[in-house]
Amino acid sequence: MTEHTIRLDFHALLVEHDLLREILGVLSADDNGRSEWISLPAMLDELYDRLSQHFLAEEQGGYMSDALRRAPHLADEAARLAGEHSLFLAEIKECRKEADDQSTPYSADLRGRFRKFTERYFHHEHHENSLVQRAFDIDIGVGD
Ligand SMILES: [Fe+2]
Q1: Among the four 1, 54, 57, 123, which has the fewest Cβ within 10 Å?
Q2: Residue spans per domain, the chain
Q3: Which residues, chain by chain, have CB under 5 Å from ion ligand 1?
């Protein structure tokens, strides 16, 4: 992986996180009227496309293959995490369907649903990072 690729990936993550925050802002009551001109369905479509790309990048060439070569006993945990990808995409589609059926102000249900999605997604990312970290800790002999 080149330095250029790493920078692009990091930029993509920042844009993704900004988008999650913006969607939460549009769904919340304190969005200062932005929902007047921001299309929530379009934002959810963009999120769907970005996360599809993100998951594809993770899965290309074998999900967590470097980490699992070092720590094969983490394979089940990695498989569970990989299985969450399609659930996240399905959840965005569901939110999009709900958003289509509503107009501003959006319902507290949809807001709560998307907030939970965001929490689960951040937890997923954190869990992936932690798995890779543990695999490398084992590799250099600091894992327990
Ligand atoms: Fe992932």
Answers
A1: 1
A2: 3-139
A3: 58
Q: Which CB contacts under 8 angstroms, 24+ apart, belong to 38-42?
A: 40/99, 40/106, 41/96, 41/99, 41/100
pLDDT in tens, 99-125: 988 877 788 999 999 999 999 999 999
Q: What is the CA radius of gyration of the chain?
A: 18
**From the centroid of its chain, how far is CA 143?**
27
C-alpha of residue 82 to centroid of ligand 1, in Å: 6
CA-based torsion, 33, 46, 83, 64: positive or negative? negative
CB 78 within 8 A of CB 131: yes
| Cα of 81 from ligand 1 centre, angstroms | 7
Q: Which of 89, 67, 88, 86 is nearest to 78 (CA)?
A: 67
